[in-house]
């Protein structure tokens, strides 16, 4: 497994890799997993992170020294390698595909997101990068698209359809636990950056004018924090909106257990871990009507889809008082996650792919 950053730097891609690796290592088929990542600060070069062997390669002058060390490491271990799975689409992906061609090793590339600011969008915007990555992606053994949106962008790049497998993000399946709460708690989890549209959420919250038995908790940090705090003051909603900052993952799960409704106003997403975890933790969801979300959520069945601030305000107002709807949506959402997106399901898809590639 190759990823530019790993523990203690943990975001969505890193968490997905960690949980997938743990599922593979616990499997009765005796899968062996090693994570190759970049060394930062004074972290040890080798460490077992929550049962996962982790090799930290040179991090200075990234990516140049890292790529050189990565190539040398792979070359030294070439006889022990069955599959190289790269969890990024930047320069390590290019190097690993070239290595795979030279040493006849299967290489999987994972494309996590399309839309504004994504790696695939930056590639499509550049003629040079489009030509380079068209070759790289078509030379990989398989390309994993998280969503149909990503699949469409790969098609625009003329990646062969037989190269692309649609495999979603996975999530831990949490046991059902009934929620008895005095307040209706809405929650947002994610980075505070422009494409997440948290400003739209705050404006819609103000417009919805929910009662005193409702509150909005915002978990995350980022460059938009100060402007969002100022917006909250200007709108006069400080008493019902609480900024909790960035929290450790276990604390995030505890907040999801306390909440009833997860809100995702982003203009662009892949398959967001926080959304799947919220659904698994029995939250009704209100999400922007972008393709990545509408691939998961059927409006009125697993959650509510919205277009624009006015519809978001209407959805917030509706769920602030309709407890039967909250109950219905949250149970449907949990059932969907357990049957389609649990790591038990997703890890089997990857295991079958690895075994298929090893037989070629």
Written account of the structure:
By secondary structure, the protein is an alpha/beta fold. The chain has 2 domains: 12-170 and 342-359, Glycogen Phosphorylase B (Rossmann fold); 184-341, 3-Layer(aba) Sandwich (Rossmann fold). Helices cover 45% and strands 16% of the residues. It contains 14 helices and 13 strands. It has helices spanning 12-25, 64-76, 91-103, 119-124, 127-139, 148-156, 198-208, 225-235, 249-258, 273-280, 291-294, 308-321, 323-341, 343-359, and strands at 35-38, 46-49, 52-57, 84-86, 107-111, 142-145, 164-166, 184-189, 214-219, 241-245, 261-264, 284-288, 304-306. The strands form 3 sheets. The chain has a 6-stranded parallel sheet, sandwiched between helices. A 4-stranded parallel sheet has the order 4-5-6-7. Helix 3 packs across helix 5 (127-139). The longest helix has 19 residues, at 323-341. The radius of gyration is 21 Å and the shape is elongated.
SSE arrangement:
Elements: H1 12-25, E1 35-38, E2 46-49, E3 52-57, H2 64-76, E4 84-86, H3 91-103, E5 107-111, H4 119-124, H5 127-139, E6 142-145, H6 148-156, E7 164-166, E8 184-189, H7 198-208, E9 214-219, H8 225-235, E10 241-245, H9 249-258, E11 261-264, H10 273-280, E12 284-288, H11 291-294, E13 304-306, H12 308-321, H13 323-341, H14 343-359
Parallel strand pairs: 1-3, 4-5, 5-6, 6-7, 8-9, 8-11, 9-10, 11-12, 12-13
Antiparallel strand pairs: 2-3
Helix pairs in contact: 1-14, 2-3, 3-5, 7-8, 7-12, 13-14
């Amino acid at each position: 497994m190759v990823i530019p950053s790993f523990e203690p730097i943990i975001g969505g891609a890193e968490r997905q890799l960690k949980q997938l690796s743990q599922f593979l290592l616990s499997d009765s088929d005796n899968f062996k997993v090693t994570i190759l990542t970049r060394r930062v600060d004074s972290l040890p070069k080798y460490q077992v992170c929550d049962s996962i062997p982790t090799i930290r390669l040179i991090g200075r002058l990234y990516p140049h020294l890292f790529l050189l060390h990565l190539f040398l490491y792979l070359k030294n271990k070439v006889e022990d390698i069955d599959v190289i799975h790269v969890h990024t689409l930047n320069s390590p992906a290019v190097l690993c595909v070239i290595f795979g061609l030279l040493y006849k090793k299967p290489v999987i590339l994972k494309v996590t997101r399309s839309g504004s600011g994504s790696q695939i969008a930056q590639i499509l915007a550049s003629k040079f990068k489009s030509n380079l990555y068209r070759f790289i992606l078509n030379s990989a053994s398989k390309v994993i698209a998280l969503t149909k949106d990503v699949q469409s962008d790969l098609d625009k790049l003329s990646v062969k359809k037989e190269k692309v497998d649609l495999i979603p993000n996975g999530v831990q399946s949490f046991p059902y636990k009934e929620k008895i709460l005095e307040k209706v708690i809405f929650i947002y989890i994610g980075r505070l950056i422009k494409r997440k549209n948290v400003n739209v959420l705050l404006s819609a919250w103000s417009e919805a004018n929910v009662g005193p038995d409702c509150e909005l908790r915002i978990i995350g940090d980022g460059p938009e924090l100060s402007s969002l705090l100022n917006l909250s003051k200007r709108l006069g909603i400080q008493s019902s909106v609480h900024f909790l900052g960035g929290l450790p993952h276990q604390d995030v799960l505890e907040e999801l257990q306390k909440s009833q409704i997860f809100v995702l106003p982003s203009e662009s997403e892949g398959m967001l871990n926080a959304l799947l975890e919220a659904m698994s933790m029995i939250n009704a969801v209100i999400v922007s009507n972008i393709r990545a979300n509408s691939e998961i959520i059927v409006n009125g069945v697993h959650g509510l889809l919205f277009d624009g601030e006015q519809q978001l305000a209407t959805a917030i107002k509706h769920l602030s008082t309709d407890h039967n709807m909250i109950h219905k949506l949250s149970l449907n959402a949990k059932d969907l996650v357990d049957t389609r997106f649990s790591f038990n399901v997703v890890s089997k898809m990857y295991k079958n792919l690895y075994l298929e590639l090893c037989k070629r």
